[in-house]
Predict the 3D structure of the following.
Amino acid sequence: MAQSLGFPAPPAGLGKRPYPNLLRPMNDGPRKFGYAIVGLGKYAVNQILPAFAECEYAKVTALVSGDINKARRLGKHYGIEESHLYTYDNFDKIAQDPEVDAVYIILPNSLHADFTERSFRAGKHVLCEKPMAVTVEECQRMIAAGKKAGKKLMIGYRCHFDPVTHKAIELARTSIGKPQIITTDNGDNTDPTDPTYQWRLTRSLSGGGALMDLGIYGVNGSRYMLNEDPIEVQATIMPPSDPMFREIDETIVWIMKYRSGAVAHGSASFNVNAMSRFNLQGTDASLRMDPATSYWCNSVSHCTTGDTHTWSTPMFTIPALNQFSAQLDHLAISVANNTPLAATGEEGMQDVRLIQAMYQSAHSGSRPVSTDWGDWRKTI
Ligand code: NAD
């Protein structure tokens, strides 16, 4: 991994939000930080497990699955012995596994809270996938359990480890004038025959649809880009086009209003060709990210001329950094050096709280819902 990405530190005074130094060195010697992966589904198998190959400070040391044969097959591939393979039922034995420093929870959303609490009871740190949980109460329980255990809780916002996101935040805060309008759209098609989509269509497992799963990128990204939290939200859920979407939001559009006068509006859908866009219009310049939140090859371009068609070309070319490996290393570094996390439980809870407010709006005739809850950072 390169030692510098060439990005300047954020200007002093901007800093309510953590701005992770992706490559801060560890100081606790050669032992790598061990992760147990809970849930061996698509994201775990296709993105996270292979990413350990590019980690400097982290390695996978245990696997947890409902299907022990799947765990064995993957264990063989990644050099993990039978004694470090667990099922959901005997998971609590992980407390006695010295090779496991942290548990990475990659399960359907409604299982995040329970496994986070069990992991903290086992004395492990936790990296939990987004969305953090399906209710604010669950998020509060997860945060409290981490505090009680004296362990760290990080949420899997991988884009915080993408240099393209960092470049966009730097431009947003230094060279667009006053941020005015954000437009962000996230969506994908649904294949109801694929198990990875089936739980997403089931409210009791997902907690919601397109907004919970994909729209959350736009919600979190807008807050980060503006360095501000919205004071009011509004949303509309479109009627489902197919019975498979009857329990959850297939397509939703939303607005977030900010005290500064900025406004973000977005959409999320489970029934569109893949989209991942983020545009920010400032008084002096514009930013365009498309794709904005893909696993690879995100891009940001910048337009300052007043001519909407003259974008920076080529788009900013930024050295590739494996978001997944950087995220895995980040928790290891944070634990070793006791440095702040880029994406805390409180950050994850704020997104869940805003999403719940959007659902409340959508279910009450799209009425505005106040989210002027004060600065949550002052309460932690
Ligand atoms: P998936 O369906 O492919 O995998 C989920 C795993 O959980 C499977 O192995 C499944 O067997 C297991 N599981 C355990 N109990 C289950 C139950 N009761 N019902 C259904 N499955 C059960 O899903 P995925 O795409 O890997 O998503 C898992 C989590 O990761 C979700 O929270 C999702 O939001 C998150 N995710 C994050 C990203 C990202 O970019 N950060 C990308 C994809 C998924």
